């Protein structure tokens, strides 16, 4: 939760009312604080926006989709086809569903990049060409799951190979949140000047196989752990991370044996820096098993 005191501290100016603005609007320099979806203070809810959307968050971050895994739990379907390109209905794939839900924020992205492995590379190239999208498709050079470099390794490979030189939104495309406010995530990062992630309340059983985090009253992450044996909260760490360029070097310090899970990036940043989290409430589509796939096909 962001306090008005924190906003004043971050912006270095007093919050003042704006004549003629919608009821409940405040101003901090060039920022307008309008009642909406991002919580600020105890009793009211606000969205942080600006006189010009581009001034605060438009067109200067990159979107990076991690798609280099081999999805062994979905074999034999994924022996020749990546999970993201499994058909949900005729000529409509999991990655189409992902993009359909995030494309409303397309103006925020300066570049859109997919990192995959060498085995699936051409399939993503063909999909991108058929859709006439402008994704950049890069291969990490891996042909077999025994050679994989892990999600953290793929992030760093993409940063270096694609020469990513700005903040980047990293997404696992098999985890879809139709109601996620990506602009709010970017705005939280801008306001706190830190990397940020997304969290959602989940049952303890679900958290044991994912990640667990603990927040303070202003949504700063106090503790983060991957696959905890004993979860310390009911907050699940969603694999969506807006990583600040300044934090890339901290992520490079992650040991090779810890690079398999993308959540390790947040664990590293919590230990070495500051990270905030945006709470998500709403539907989640997560496809990891054959049962998940069949259910998604049925609903599509």
List the topology elements.
Layout: H1 4-11, E1 16-17, E2 26-28, E3 31-39, E4 45-50, H2 53-56, E5 61-67, E6 87-89, E7 92-93, H3 94-102, E8 109-116, H4 121-131, E9 136-139, H5 150-161, E10 168-172, E11 175-176, H6 182-192, E12 195-201, H7 204-208, E13 211-215, E14 221-226, E15 235-243, H8 248-252, H9 264-272, E16 275-279, E17 285-286, H10 290-299
Parallel strand pairs: 5-8, 5-10, 8-9, 12-16
Antiparallel strand pairs: 1-2, 2-3, 3-4, 6-7, 10-15, 11-17, 12-15, 13-14
Which secondary-structure class do the elements indicate? Answer: alpha/beta
Number of helices: 10
Distance between the termini: 36 Å
The strands making up the biggest β-sheet line up spatially as 9-8-5-10-15-12-16
Tell me the number of structural domains: 2
In total, the number of strands is 17
Question: Main sheet, how many strands, which sense, barrel?
Answer: 7 strands, mixed
CATH class of the largest domain: Alpha Beta
Description:
It is a single chain. Helices cover 28% and strands 28% of the residues. It has helices at residues 4-11, 53-56, 94-102, 121-131, 150-161, 182-192, 204-208, 248-252, 264-272, 290-299; strands at 16-17, 26-28, 31-39, 45-50, 61-67, 87-89, 92-93, 109-116, 136-139, 168-172, 175-176, 195-201, 211-215, 221-226, 235-243, 275-279, 285-286. A hairpin with a 2-residue loop joins strand 6 (87-89) and strand 7 (92-93).
Quick structural summary:
The protein contains ten helices and 17 strands.
């Amino acid at each position: 939760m962001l306090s008005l005191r924190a906003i004043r501290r971050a912006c270095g100016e007093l919050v003042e009312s704006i004549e003629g603005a919608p009821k409940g609007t405040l101003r901090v320099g060039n920022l307008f604080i309008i009642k909406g979806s991002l919580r600020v203070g105890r009793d009211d809810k606000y969205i942080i926006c600006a006189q010009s959307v581009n001034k605060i968050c438009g067109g200067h971050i990159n979107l990076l989709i991690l798609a280099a895994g081999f999805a062994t739990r979905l074999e034999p379907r994924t022996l020749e086809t990546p999970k993201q390109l499994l058909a949900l209905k005729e000529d409509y794939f999991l990655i189409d569903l992902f993009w359909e839900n995030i494309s409303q924020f397309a103006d925020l992205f300066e570049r859109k990049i997919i990192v995959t492995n060498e085995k699936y590379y051409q399939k993503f190239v063909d999909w991108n060409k058929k859709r006439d999208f402008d994704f950049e498709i890069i291969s990490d050079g891996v042909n077999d799951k025994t050679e994989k470099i892990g999600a953290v390794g793929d992030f760093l490979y993409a940063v270096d190979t694609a020469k990513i030189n700005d903040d980047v939104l990293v997404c696992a495309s098999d985890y879809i949140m139709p109601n996620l406010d990506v602009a709010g995530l970017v705005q939280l990062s801008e306001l706190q000047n830190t990397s940020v992630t997304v969290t959602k309340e989940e049952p303890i059983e679900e958290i044991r196989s994912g990640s667990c985090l603990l927040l303070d009253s202003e949504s700063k992450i106090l503790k983060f752990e991957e696959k905890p044996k004993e979860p310390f909260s009911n907050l699940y760490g969603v694999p969506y991370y807006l990583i600040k360029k300044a934090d890339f070097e901290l992520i490079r310090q992650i040991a090779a044996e810890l690079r398999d899970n993308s959540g390790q990036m947040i664990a590293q940043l919590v230990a070495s820096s500051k990270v905030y989290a945006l709470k998500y409430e709403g539907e989640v589509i997560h496809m990891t098993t054959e049962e998940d796939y069949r259910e998604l096909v049925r609903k599509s």
